[in-house]
């Protein structure tokens, strides 16, 4: 095995390593994807779940901004990735130790889970960051590598869905944490994106040292980046509302919670086609065009939930559109963000993008739970579908405005 590995070229070895980091990360993540169902079993209402997730999203803002700036300052995505994977896996695995059935259980979980999210909230961000940046710098096929992550997420989802009646929802926490040790091991041997470029740069001049800082104002003078952040607010309000209340929707139409993993796995499987086609799509269409089609497809799922889905097959039909749209968004959005950001602020650009998505998550959680309880499952998802369409409209209008001004997106 060692001889075979040595015979592979540097690009192939790095592709295998990144598959181990990102792909197995998503496999492990699938086993820990039952937090909302666990909280529903513990006794959280939709509104209480919304408040908890809003607090966790607020912590996520601090998390991604903090770890993003740490990454840029120390010049290492890899070290930060290892830190957040290790801390998140350990703390998440300890969640079931909080006693159930006590009057204070809801309060204890409301305190503990945001603390966990300081690490866990940045795990997927940096797992994607190291893959996107290495793929761009080494000219690897990002879509192919990321599709392996979606496939392994599907495999993991189906496995845990089959095992759930035997292991119980509470054991998914520590199983996921244990599996996360594998991508941590791969991360130790990963290439640090941008390391060679930074080493080749000349030392800063004395006057530059006096200025200090990361000069984040550069990001916010980039109007295309700012417009993308505005779009992200509406888009992630939608994705937050869509994702968090699926267990409650399933309960409304009497689909067993054990089938949740099948839904998540099927959606992840449908991400793969567009990820595999991403290289060809990028040759034919600008990334901004691919981004704008994502919410249009994802809206179809929510509108389907609101109009006709009444059982598991109906939900699977609707989830087809969400999976395709999410695959298109995964393959295009981070690369679009990478394209917009200056070289020395790429990690911070992604960190602030995720921070904005966390702000949207706060709004989505606080409003989503209240609206779900007040309006009912079907009307709620119809409303979310309409908001997805509105987010697409916002992005299109921003592109038209940039084109009218002759900005960078007009090219």
Describe the 3D structure.
This protein is mostly helical. It is built from 21 helices and no strands. The longest helix is centred in the C-terminal third of the chain and has 30 residues. The chain is globular. Helices cover 81% and strands 0% of the residues. The protein starts with a helix and ends in a 6-residue tail after the last helix. It is found in: Cell inner membrane. GO terms for molecular function: lactose binding; lactose:proton symporter activity. It comes from Candidatus Acutalibacter pullistercoris. Its main location: membrane. This is MFS transporter.
Task: Summarize the topology.
Elements: H1 2-7, H2 10-31, H3 35-42, H4 46-74, H5 77-93, H6 105-120, H7 123-138, H8 142-167, H9 172-179, H10 181-188, H11 195-200, H12 206-211, H13 217-220, H14 223-244, H15 246-252, H16 260-276, H17 278-284, H18 287-307, H19 312-340, H20 346-375, H21 377-405
Transmembrane segments: 12-31, 51-68, 80-98, 104-123, 144-167, 173-189, 224-248, 260-277, 289-308, 314-338, 350-372, 378-401
Pfam families: MFS_1_like
Protein name: MFS transporter
